[in-house]
Write a structure and sequence with these properties.
This protein is an alpha/beta fold. It contains five helices and eight strands; from the N terminus they run βααβαβααβββββ. It has helices at 20-25, 32-45, 64-77, 94-98, 105-128; strands spanning 10-12, 50-57, 81-86, 134-142, 149-153, 159-163, 171-180, 184-195.
């Protein structure tokens, strides 16, 4: 990835929990520290690489301390974005066979809300780093919110929208970022780059 410009500088690295105790219950093969070491290696080799996560809130037996371990892991990594879920039993899985779903729904929802809120804060922190910078965007489709705008992705898998002008799906366009949300970069095309 570091050697080739044609590879997106983004890695989806599911962690599921920041607690070693819960990771063991999930039958995951990594520890919290091993995960941090992997993140450090990625950032050493590809300093600008964006990283996303999968997290589960309210896994059976999860304590408040386990939950705080997850939040502290998120604080250390500051993911670009993530996929976060409250635990629900899935038939046939080891958790369903061996662990009682013992976390009340209200607690699951509260913990998930805290995880989502923290991720939104980190996502905004990451998108704000693009303000006033020029990024190359591959146009994928029309923006969902405006038929006058294109939507595409940067090399870091960030979504960017900008006015259509004379560009087409499949074009690579240099876009100056003038605003952002936690999930989307907003900008204007500054020059034509190349056709796909």
């Amino acid at each position: 990835m570091a050697a080739f410009d044609t590879i997106c500088k983004h890695i989806h690295l599911p962690v599921q929990s920041g607690s070693d105790r819960i990771l063991k219950k999930m039958n995951r093969l990594h520890t919290r520290q091993e995960y941090f070491d992997l993140i450090d290696n990625i950032r050493t080799i590809i300093p600008t690489c964006s990283i996303s996560q999968d997290l589960i809130a309210g896994f059976p037996t999860e304590t408040e301390e386990d939950h705080q371990d997850t939040l502290s892991l998120m604080e250390q990594v500051k993911y670009s974005f993530g996929y976060m879920f409250a635990y629900s039993e899935r038939p046939g899985t080891m958790a369903a066979r061996k662990l009682k779903d013992d976390i009340p729904e209200t607690v699951k929802k509260k913990r998930l809300a805290e995880v989502v809120a923290l991720q939104q804060e980190h996502s905004k922190y990451r998108t704000e780093k693009y303000l006033n910078k020029i990024v190359e965007v591959l146009i994928e489709k029309e923006s969902k919110k405006s038929s006058e705008h294109w939507s595409g992705r940067t090399e870091h898998n960030s979504v960017a929208v900008f006015p259509k002008e004379y560009y087409n799906i499949g074009d690579f366009v240099n876009v100056k970022i003038i605003d952002c949300t936690s999930a989307t970069l907003i900008g204007n095309a500054v020059e034509y780059s190349k056709n796909n």
